[in-house]
Amino acid sequence: MSRAFTAQVIRNVPLDTHHFLLEVDTGEARPIADAGVAGSAGFAERAGITANTGITANAGITANTGSRRNDGVAPDVVVAPDVVVAPDVVVEGFSPSPGQFCMIGPSGAVEPFLKRPFSVLDYGDGKASFLIRVCGKATLALKNLPAGRSIDVIGPLGRGFSPEMEEDEPLFIAAGGVGIACVYLLLKKHPRAALFYGVRDKRSLLLYDMLRALSDNIRVTSDDGSVGVKGDVISALAGSVTEFLNKPARKNPGGGDRAVKICCCGPHAMLAGAASTFASLNVELYVSLEERMACGVGACLGCAVRTNAGYRTVCKDGPVFNAKDVVWNF
Ligand SMILES: Cc1cc2nc3c(=O)[nH]c(=O)nc-3n(C[C@H](O)[C@H](O)[C@H](O)COP(=O)(O)OP(=O)(O)OC[C@H]3O[C@@H](n4cnc5c(N)ncnc54)[C@H](O)[C@@H]3O)c2cc1C
Ligand code: FES
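# flavin-adenine dinucleotide complex -> structure
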């Protein structure tokens, strides 16, 4: 169940010049109090209000109608200029599943108004953390938030990685760059999985100690060879997967004739490369897609992608899709 709440920044940890870890307090989360827009009546909130996003989203309703209520109890939450989500009231903990994301932004921010999507890196003990690459206004604003400042969070959102797996079934995970944020929880849930982590160079290798604390089955590749194996991560992954598939079934506990499961997050070119590489193999490939998002809850259709079943929204129907369902432009 998704929630819309205001949380406090615990700390902001720079990892290098472009990346930082944002740690927020979800234990003391309050409902979002005000969208911070001139004219907003503000939302008289009750603790524990959650946005049952996507289910009661009302596209096309003009923003700044903070006093409008859908059921006489729950206040609406403005998630984009023309989108108001009418939340259901649910008091529940913040417990994202691997691959889910949140829309976050500084509380009361007018510029940039829209919250931005970020994968939940980790959570627990009343805290959640996000790995963020600074690339524009919103990410810079988040980077500059001091401890104690409030941020608005809507989430967890979307469908994450949920391959149905037997206990002993092999799983391969591949991440490119900041895509590692999207698969960290997955590795935590499946510590025996093989993680393939592709980076540009040694300086771009993020969170390695945290990953090593979960698993010693990590293969790093880098574009320039300054860390791990020189080359692209999908080629390295393909080598291991092919080797695995070619082993006699008895040497692959849990393998046999079952499709190998791969979960992948990274730049679009990497995901398209994976889809093309594994298309003819006995592989179930799940990819986490990225599109620019406005509402994050399936209401504005701004993040629609083509699938074999028609257009689907990345924020609500994804971000994780079976690669076979996506129409790729190779
Ligand atoms: C489901 C999902 C999960 C994400 N998880 C993370 C995460 O864990 N860590 C992280 O650092 N980033 C993540 N992103 C990307 C992040 O949302 C964008 O980097 C952020 O919105 C940029 O905001 P900005 O205002 O700083 O930059 P903007 O000024 O909005 O954009 C700066 C540049 O980045 C490009 N850009 C912006 N958003 C996207 C996008 N969604 N896909 C591709 N290019 C984009 C723009 O075209 C532009 O060139 C995720 C995106 C999605 C859709
Ligand atoms: S961002 Fe609005 S539908 Fe996905």
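# post-check
Residues 171-288 form a domain with the Rossmann fold fold (CATH 3.40.50.80).
The helical segments are 137-143, 180-189, 208-214, 233-246, 268-278.
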